Amino acid sequence: MFALAELKDTIRIAPEQFNLKLVEAIRDEINRKLANKVLLNVGLCIALKDIVSLKDSIILPGDGASHTEVIFRYIVFRPAISNILTGKIRNCSHEGVHVTLGFFDDILIPPTALQHPSRFDETEQAWVWEYPLEDGGKHDLFMDVGEPIKFRVSREIFEESSPIGPPTSESMKPGTSAATTSTAGQAGESKTPYRIIAAINESGLGVLSWWDQQQQEDDEAGDEEGEEDNNDYENDENGEGAYEE
C-alpha cells in the first residue's frame, strides 16, 4: 500500500531560515512542499523518509535565498494492482460506491464491479446487493454510509492537474457570459489527480458485516449440529435409542 520513491529537487531556503541547521531547514521545506500532494505517476506523498545526498548550496544573483540540489526518499501511497484494502463507504451514487481510507477519498467501485445482481436504491441513496436465497427468493444487503468495506484495487488513474491557464479565445468571444467562463474554470479545477478504481465482485469482498453475519450463522449451525451429535452419543452410551430386535 505504501512505497518509497526516490526523488530529486532543488530546495530553496529563505534567509529567515538560515538560523536553522541546513538539513533541518531542507526537511521542513520538503515536507511543506510535498506532504499530501499527488505526484504524477508516483502517488500521494505522505512524509519524508530520509535525505540521500546534498549538493553544495548556491545563492543566485538577485535572490538572497540558498538553493540546494537534494536527493531524498519519500513515503508515498500507491497500492499495487490487485491489493486488497479495507476502507469505509463515503457515499453512493449512480456512478458507484465511493470509498475512503481516512487520508485518501478518491476510490470508486463502479456498478459493474459490485456483487451481482445489485441495484441502486433511490430512496436510501445506497447500492443494494440482491443476495439469492435457496428458495429462489432474494435478501437485500445494503451498502450504507460508514460501513467498513473490503475491496480489491483493479486500476489506477493519474491525471495532469496543472493550472488551466488564462481564458481561451472561445471564452472571450462577445456574448460569452462570465458564468460560462467561471463554470469552465471550475470544471478544470475539479480534476482529480489520482483515483483508484476498485472491485468487490468476488467471494469474501464487500461490506464486512455481510460476511460476519454469515460466519455467525455458520458457527451457530455448527454448534447445533455438535449438540445433536453429543445427544446421540449420550443416548447410545445410556442404551437409549439403541436398536433392539
Biggest sheet overview: 5 strands, antiparallel
- Number of helices in the DSSP assignment: 3
CATH class of the largest domain: Mainly Beta
CATH topology of the largest domain: OB fold (Dihydrolipoamide Acetyltransferase, E2P)
Label the CATH architecture of the largest domain. Beta Barrel
| Percent helix | 10-25%
Assigned CATH superfamily of the largest domain? Nucleic acid-binding proteins
User: Low-confidence parts, pLDDT < 50 over ≥5 residues?
Assistant: 171-188, 241-245
SSE class: alpha+beta
How many domains make up the 3D coordinates?
A: 2
How many whole angstroms does the radius of gyration measure? 29 Å
Mean pLDDT: 83
What general form does the structure show? elongated
The helix/strand series, from N terminus to C terminus, equals: EHEEEEEEEEEEEHEEH
Describe this protein's structure:
Residues 84-211 form the RNA polymerase III subunit Rpc25 domain. It comes from Musca domestica (House fly). Belongs to the eukaryotic RPB7/RPC8 RNA polymerase subunit family. Residues 175-190 have a biased composition (Low complexity). InterPro entries: NA-bd_OB-fold (IPR012340), RNA_pol_III_Rbc25 (IPR013238), RNA_pol_Rpb7-like_N_sf (IPR036898), Rpb7-like (IPR045113), Rpb7-like_N (IPR005576). By secondary structure, the protein is an alpha+beta fold. The protein has 2 domains: 2-77, Dna Ligase, domain 1 (2-Layer Sandwich); 83-160 and 192-216, OB fold (Dihydrolipoamide Acetyltransferase, E2P) (Beta Barrel), CATH 2.40.50. The chain has 3 helices and 14 strands. It has helices at residues 22-34, 178-189, 208-237, and strands at residues 2-13, 38-39, 43-54, 58-59, 66-77, 84-93, 96-100, 107-109, 118-121, 126-132, 138-142, 148-158, 194-199, 206-207. The strands form 3 sheets. Strands 1, 2, 3, 4 and 5 form a 5-stranded antiparallel β-sheet that branches. The chain has a 5-stranded mixed beta barrel with strand order 6-7-8-13-12. β9 (118-121) and β10 (126-132) form a beta hairpin. The longest helix has 30 residues, at 208-237. It is elongated. The relative contact order is 0.12. Residues 171-188 and 241-245 have low confidence and may be disordered.
